[in-house]
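User: Second chain of the day. Same drill as before.
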Amino acid sequence: MYIEVAATDHKKLINRIRQLLRQLFASESILQLVSCNTIAPLEMYSEGRVDRKLAPNLPAFGMILQNLRNNISPELIELIETQLKPLALQLALESRRVFEQLKLNRTVVIQADVNQYRRGPREWELTGCFYGRELQRLRPFYEGRDVERLNARASRDQICQKYYETYKKEKLTGGLMALWCPHLVCLGFHKMPKAEGRDDVFSALLCYFESPPSIVIYDFACQLAPYCRSREPDLFKDTLFVIDEMHANGHSSCSQACFLSNYMQTNADLLRINSSAAECSNSGLNRIRKSVSYMSENHAILYTHTFLSVWNRRRERGLQKETDDQAKRFEAIYEIHGRDEI
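Assistant: Same format as last time:
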């Protein structure tokens, strides 16, 4: 029995090592695999200490360490760790080098005063941008980074094929971009005169959020992550950009370092996240798609704002009802069993 279990564990360990190598040699930025949060834990591991943040931030590495504890001979563990420790140090050094290089190569050409563009609480009626908060920053022009804003065509060899097929077709223009929380509540929206894709998400997070979310789930996160970090590396250094489970299958050329399912293996908290929240909520926007297409710009903005306000209110009332029902069930259990038995 021990031989069968050991053989199975050896096979799992080999598969984990192969998975790490595939992510390591993928044609993506090292910061997608090794975020800034992972640099210190990797350096600690190279010195013989294991930080609990290593596995959640770098699942491919963490799963290897987990398999090393399962019926593996001490000789094999020593052999593998002899190779992993120098690799961990090199990954940390390379990630830090790339991050510092991004900061040095970042040049902002235009940085206007944000106070000059704050027009009051109802400015969204003119701009078509409503995020329920004040404008935090203006979207500057980054020299050497925003060339694509002048040239809409991009080479298929330089970007994810799925991104190209969706956003680079000239017939797809304009639309509405909305940000959603996992509870299907809309955090804000803005009207798009032209479909930009990555720039719309980046601009919304940059302009209306004092600090970006810790996790951004986007169907083209493989392109959004380097887009954001190359322009604002300090602001987005702690943000995890991942592709939801439904859209991950379409990214055949992207490594698992971009997939939410990859991080679920070592972070149980992510299992409770509704990764399809945006997709489900965007399908609700289809109800007003035809109506808005026949409206003027001002009417379309007002109509969208009203629809999403009603949507959010209904979601909040539904969540409150679930909370009240749960509290009532707890009170009923308390009355039956008493405090000491709960």
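The two ends are 41 Å apart (CA to CA).

User: Great, on to the next one.
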